[in-house]
Design a protein that fits this description.
- By secondary structure, the chain is α/β, with parallel strands linked by helices.
- The protein has a single domain, classed as Rossmann fold, CATH 3.40.50.150.
- Helix content is about 40%, strand content about 25%.
- It has a seven-stranded mixed beta sheet with strand order 3-2-1-4-5-7-6, sandwiched between helices.
- Helix 2 packs parallel to helix 3.
Length: about 200
């Protein structure tokens, strides 16, 4: 089944969809297999392929996703049905900036792959619904190389770059968190909430 997801990921990439990069995708699935979460929150569902792969990797998990694009939600739900995970996945439609602050309950795994300029804004609310011992997996944290300064930042991306720097600083310096940064592809951070 994962091979079929990989095939669909390739098709989505060719269509210009913003798909999680290959090594980051592998790291996501390895992390899910290791952590064995029961409740997953995904910010940025897109076509649902990463969510499906997480649910296949952890058969006891359920997933709640946030997606603003109505057409993407329809495609994601079709994919959930196709892969037999429809009954374990639900999608909140709307802007993550409005949905995240009103989330209730606890999640033991959060996959953050939404609008890059909002990671820092989302963080306090995400940490409030992340259970102790839970994991926050964030993609694109080095934002095209701009965050590490390995690439000169075009003016239009300055706000996003600064937001991401604030996000990385927050997850790296909070004594309640333990964070590992992976400088591969577009950058991944894996944060454990330790207390």
């Amino acid at each position: 089944m994962i091979n079929e997801i990989i095939r669909l990921r390739e098709k989505a990439k060719q269509a210009g969809e913003p798909v999680l990069r290959d090594k980051s995708f592998e790291l996501l699935l390895d992390t899910v297999k290791k952590e064995k979460p029961k409740k997953i929150l995904e910010i940025g569902v897109n076509l649902g392929l990463s969510g499906i792969a997480m649910l296949i990797s952890e058969p006891n998990a359920s997933l709640s996703g946030i997606e603003i694009d109505e057409e993407k939600i329809k495609l994601a739900k079709d994919n959930y049905k196709k892969f037999g995970v429809f009954d374990r996945a639900k999608i909140f439609q709307g802007d993550a900036s409005e949905i995240i602050p009103v989330l209730t309950g606890e999640y033991d795994f959060i996959f953050l792959d939404g609008p890059k300029g909002h990671y820092y804004e989302y963080l306090p609310n995400l940490l409030s619904v992340l259970s102790v011992g839970g994991t926050l997996f964030a993609d694109n944290v080095l934002f095209r190389g701009y965050v590490l300064g390995s690439v000169k930042t075009p003016h239009r991306f300055n706000t996003t770059k600064h937001s991401m720097e604030n996000f990385l600083n927050a997850i790296s310096t909070d004594p309640n968190l333990s964070t590992k940064l992976y400088e591969m592809e577009d950058g991944v951070s894996i944060t454990k909430k330790i207390k």
